[in-house]
Structures are given as C-alpha cells and as structure tokens.
Amino acid sequence: MNYELKPTILMVPGLRDHVSEHWQTLLQQRLPKALSVPPLEHDKLSCAARVAALDAALAKIDGPVILVAHSAGVMITVHWAAQHKREIHGALLAAPADLETPMPAGYPELDTLEQNGWLPIPRKRLPFPSIVGASRNDPLARFERVQDMAQDWGSRLVDLGEVGHLNPASGFGEWPMAETLIRRLVLM
C-alpha cells in the first residue's frame, strides 16, 4: 500500500495506553505515516483530559487523518467527535468498551467512569466514515451492544468473530485485518 499521499494514521489507545505487544503499537511501527496520541502524565481517567490529548495530537497533523481507536480509545474518539469539528477522513473503531455496563473483575479503573465524564456514551451519528470491529466474546462489551452503537454512529459493522477484547491477553499482538480495514477507509 502506498501511504505517501494517503492520510496520516493516528492511533487512539485505550485507558492502559501504549502496550508494546498491542496490535496498535505494532501497526504504528510498520506504517510510515502513523502516529499515536501520547500517554497522559496526569488525569489518566479523565475523559476530558483524554479528549484534549486527542485534539492536541490532531492539531499537530496537517492534511487528512484516519483515527484507529481501540477499547476506551473508541469512547475517546466518539466524545471528541461530539465536541470538535475538524475534518477526519475516517475511523477504525475496534472492540469498543461498553462503559455503560458493569465491567468484569480486573478493571478497577473503570469503577469511576461516571464521575470522570465518560458517561453517557455519545450516540450521535459520527461526522466521518467509520468501521466498528466487534468481537463476539469481548468481556468488555456484548456484541449486541456494540452493534447498537455502530448503528447509532452510522458506522459499518464488521463481525470479527471470537477475538476476545482484541488485545495481547486475547492472543493479539499482530492483527493483520486492521490494515485491510484501514485500506477500506482510505478509499472512502
């Protein structure tokens, strides 16, 4: 794929930020025009701080952008889209975490979501093309809930099958389908 005249790819990681074996990190290392929203030093659980970090990263990019978000990064993206008007070429929204439903054990940082500005999840149609990748067995979101979010956002839904939360704990380092879905967004 020739990325020279293509959009910049901006990774929007979830709450656990940058994980070296994560598919987003590996993808960023492979693509010549890929960047990532930097990790926060303070207010790591604040939705407003995460949205501001995304906006600051976008302000440094000239030209078209494709957002590639995972988990809570999807929620950061939809909160950002509800508040800002910058043109975005498209977004890949992979394994969105359903922050409105109780989380399984092992995610204590998610117990304070409402007071940190994450809820409710924005359900307005996104102002850019988007693809939502949904897992059939994601412990952080039932498939039907993600299907409803995708419909509300005006996103194309891609059924990823049983891929857990699409993270290293689910067996994903490399996720080759991400490049295929990004290519689709480039052509939109």
TrEMBL record:
Domain of life: Bacteria
GO molecular function, one term: hydrolase activity
SUPFAM superfamilies linked to this entry: alpha/beta-Hydrolases
Pfam families: Ser_hydrolase
Annotated InterPro entries: AB_hydrolase_fold, RBBP9/YdeN
Protein name: Alpha/beta hydrolase
